[in-house]
Structures are given as structure tokens and as C-alpha cells.
């Protein structure tokens, strides 16, 4: 479960998401995993109605298959010693938008996909594990509104941390977009089954 706040150049939305992460195959070399889930956000689209802000909602889902490779490990014991990993994969999904204009409601959707990659350090701290990370994602897609398609692409950098303790994880990530003054903030709480 996560709380997300998007401070975008054209809109400001917040809300929550629920994701699951399934490890498909793993070993001392790394792992393959699949993350999937959805989100619901609400807020305002800045100046969209002849200069006036309008209420908007955004919902959607995405699927992220990825691989993680161990680059360095100071100890063979799990959660003992420092470890550095790299990860890479694909992100893809759909988003659905609704805006409440003064003359009625407007709805459209977008679809997106693109590669992602990054590095993460795993630092044991007693019975906890602190894991700072850096990631980069390049997404391409198109929005469809009234049967007209609009292409888009953007690059997102991300940096943050995971803290894991007794099967619980607390994560925070800041994702500025390279092309404009937009930033996404996410705080999440997870647990292992």
C-alpha cells in the first residue's frame, strides 16, 4: 500500500495504490520478479478550464517484470554484510482520467511502456535492512481523447530508500521528471506473506 503525491507541471493529484511483488526465480546471483497493481488519485488540473482549475481523478494499473543482479556481496549469509545490486526491466500499463469542466465531464485514457533500471545498496542495521536506491525510467505512450491520439514520452529519475524489518517494509521515493518541473512523491508500507 502506498500514498502518492504528484506535483506536476499541469496538475496536482494525490491518492493511494496497492501493488504485489512476486519473486518468480531467485538465487545468490539475483532474482526475477513481477510487480503488478493499481492506483487511484484525485486532485486538480491547473488552468484547464479557460484558466480555472478543474477537479480530476486518475486511476490505472501497471505491470513491471524485472531482474535483479548481485554486483557485490560482502557476506554469503542473507542480511549479513553489505550488498550492491542492479535491476532492470519494463514498465507498462494504462491510466484513466476524468475531468469536471464547467460545461460537463471529460474522460480519456493513456497507455504507456518503457524500460527502467537502477542500482540499490543493502546495508544491515541490526535486525533491520536499510536500502537506498537510484532508478531511471523512460516511458513512451499515447493518450486517446475523442478518438484522437496524442503521443508522449518522458524520463523519470528516482531516488529513495527501503527500510525492512521483521517482514515489514517502509519505502520512500522522489521521482523528478527530466523534461519539466514535475515531481512524484511516494511513501509506501509493505509486508511479506
Explain this structure.
It is built from no helices and ten strands. It has strands at 2-7, 11-27, 30-49, 52-73, 83-101, 104-125, 128-145, 148-165, 168-176, 183-191. The chain has one domain (2-191): OPCA outer membrane adhesin/invasin (Lipocalin, Beta Barrel). The model has no long low-confidence stretch (mean pLDDT 91). The protein has 193 residues and is mainly β. It is elongated, with a radius of gyration of 19 Å. Strands 1-2-3-4-5-6-7-8-9-10 form a ten-stranded antiparallel barrel. It is 0% helix and 83% strand.
Question: Which blocks of ≥5 consecutive residues have pLDDT under 50?
Answer: none
Largest sheet: 10 strands, antiparallel, barrel
Give the overall pLDDT as a whole number. 91
Q: What name is given to the CATH topology? A: Lipocalin
Tell me the name of the CATH class: Mainly Beta
In CATH terms, the superfamily is OPCA outer membrane adhesin/invasin
How much of the sequence lies in strands comes to over 45%
Number of helices: 0
Rg estimate, integer Å: 19 Å
Number of strands: 10
Shape: elongated
Strand order of the largest sheet: 1-2-3-4-5-6-7-8-9-10
- Please provide the ordered H/E string of secondary-structure elements: EEEEEEEEEE
Question: CATH architecture, please?
Answer: Beta Barrel
The helix content, as a percent range, equals under 10%
Oligomeric state, counting identical vs distinct chains: single chain
Number of domains: 1
The structure class reads mainly beta
CA-CA gap between termini: 14 Å
Amino acid at each position: 500500500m502506498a500514498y502518492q503525491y504528484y506535483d506536476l507541471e499541469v496538475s496536482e493529484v494525490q491518492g493511494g495504490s496497492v501493488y504485489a511483488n512476486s519473486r518468480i526465480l531467485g538465487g545468490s546471483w539475483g532474482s526475477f520478479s513481477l510487480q503488478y497493481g493499481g492506483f487511484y488519485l484525485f486532485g486538480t488540473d491547473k488552468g484547464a478550464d479557460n484558466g480555472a482549475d478543474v477537479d480530476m481523478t486518475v486511476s490505472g494499473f501497471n505491470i513491471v517484470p524485472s531482474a535483479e543482479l548481485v554486483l557485490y556481496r560482502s557476506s554469503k549469509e542473507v542480511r549479513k554484510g553489505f550488498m550492491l545490486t542492479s535491476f532492470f526491466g519494463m514498465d507498462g500499463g494504462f491510466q484513466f482520467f476524468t475531468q469536471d469542466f464547467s460545461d460537463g465531464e471529460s474522460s480519456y485514457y493513456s497507455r504507456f511502456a518503457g524500460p527502467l533500471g537502477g542500482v540499490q545498496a543493502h546495508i544491515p542495521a541490526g535486525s533491520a535492512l536499510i536500502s537506498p536506491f537510484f532508478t531511471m525510467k523512460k516511458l513512451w505512450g499515447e493518450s486517446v481523447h475523442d478518438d484522437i491520439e496524442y503521443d508522449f514520452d518522458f524520463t523519470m529519475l528516482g531516488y529513495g530508500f527501503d527500510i525492512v524489518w521483521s517482514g515489514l517494509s517502509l519505502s520512500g521515493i522522489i521521482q523528478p521528471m527530466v523534461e519539466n518541473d514535475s515531481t512524484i512523491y511516494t511513501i509506501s508500507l509493505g509486508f511479506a506473506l
